[in-house]
Design goal:
Aspartate Aminotransferase, domain 2; 13 strands; alpha/beta; 16% strand; four-stranded antiparallel beta sheet; binds pyridoxal-5'-phosphate
């Protein structure tokens, strides 16, 4: 099977498994796991923040960010289609007690600045205080889009003017940095706090790291504990993370090139609608032209031909390249796309 459903399906390479096996361990809730400490120091250094905290998942990092930045009843400004709004089972409201002020995003995943500023609430007796501005980079919802640095800088300036912190769900911030050809810290210097995933393109089996000011991370650590996310010999997870940061971030361009090749190939097959020049990272979101049959049948047909994809918003399908999908697989997948589409011609 060529699995293009998501980069979350990546498996740890043998060298990563070996690195995990050799990890020095201790009880992290006493701060005594040297491997966790090293991962957190490395993550803080990479993002240019004072401190960092390992959590089991991107979802937990996002919830902890809400809990630590906000109080119940506070409002978070969020972009329409941001991951946390749709795929975290309502946890921001259910667990952190925050409400969302949802704004449309521009095609480059940025906010309209006037609208952003107007959406910041006054200190009115009746209104929920605006406590956080949320960003997501890359923006998964519209196909792994990278927000231009100038736009992020402007968002940050609006936030600073109103003394509101900016958080980045940087689950794939290494893909963003690869696309922009900059260090991750060049992106994250514009936000107060950021979480990135060790899984996905970096191929660790689990883990996410939340980074920010030291006092924020201290409180985040308490909130992680509240959620039952404190872990003991978590060096097993952290070792995979260290290996990922030191090795797997270097190969992301390969995934981006494969995504571009996939999109270019699909653009040649009648029935698929894709703008290959819009591909920035490892996501390809593909439309089907109006005359084609049911998308579910197409997805089933692809599965029978050895290619896994997922349905995506607005009647589209989504393909994601990652560690474990090689250039030869792209050619093979294109063959399957072509064969299956012909059945419907
Ligand atoms: C943008 C984004 N943020 C957060 C998450 C959540 O990460 P996890 O699956 O580790 O909880 C995902 C997962 O796909 C994601 O795409």
């Amino acid at each position: 099977m060529i699995d293009l459903r998501s980069d979350t399906v990546t498996l740890p390479p043998p060298e990563m498994r070996e690195f995990i096996y050799r990890a020095e361990l201790g009880d992290d809730l006493y701060g005594e796991d040297p491997t966790v400490n090293r991962l957190q120091e490395l993550s803080a250094e990479i993002t240019g923040k004072e401190a960092a905290l390992l959590t089991p998942s991107g979802t937990m990092s996002n919830i902890i960010a809400d809990m630590t930045h906000c109080r119940p009843g506070d409002e978070v400004i969020i972009g329409d289609g941001h991951h946390t709004m749709i795929y975290e089972v309502g946890a921001p409201a259910a667990i952190a007690g925050v409400t969302f002020r949802i704004l449309p995003l521009n095609s480059d995943a940025s906010y309209d600045l006037d609208r952003l500023e107007q959406s910041i609430r006054s200190a009115d007796l009746f209104e929920p205080p605006t406590a956080l501005i949320w960003t997501e980079n890359t923006f998964a919802g519209e196909g792994g889009i990278v927000m231009p640095l100038e736009e992020l800088e402007k968002i940050s300036a609006v936030a600073r003017k109103h003394s509101i912190p900016v958080f980045m769900d940087g689950a794939r911030v290494f893909n963003a940095a690869t696309y922009l050809n900059v260090e991750v810290s060049e992106i994250t210097k514009h936000v107060d706090t950021v979480a990135f995933c060790l899984t996905k393109g970096l191929a660790a089996p689990l883990g996410s790291v939340l980074c920010g000011p030291a006092d924020f991370i201290l409180e985040a650590r308490r909130n992680r504990q509240k959620l039952g996310g404190g872990m003991r010999q978590a060096g097993l997870i952290a070792a995979a993370g260290i290996y990922a940061l030191e090795n797997m971030t270097l190969r992301l361009q390969e995934d981006h090139d494969n995504a571009r090749a996939l999109a270019e190939g699909l653009a040649e097959i009648p029935g698929f609608v894709v703008d290959s020049s819009a591909i920035q990272t490892n996501f390809v979101v593909v439309g089907l032209d109006a005359e084609r049959p049911c998308r579910d049948e197409l997805i089933e047909g692809l599965k029978d031909d050895g290619v896994l994809v997922v349905p995506w918003r607005k009647g589209r399908i989504r393909l994601v390249t990652h560690y474990g999908v090689e250039r030869g697989d792209i050619d093979e997948a294109l063959g399957a796309f072509s064969r299956v589409m012909k059945q419907y011609a």
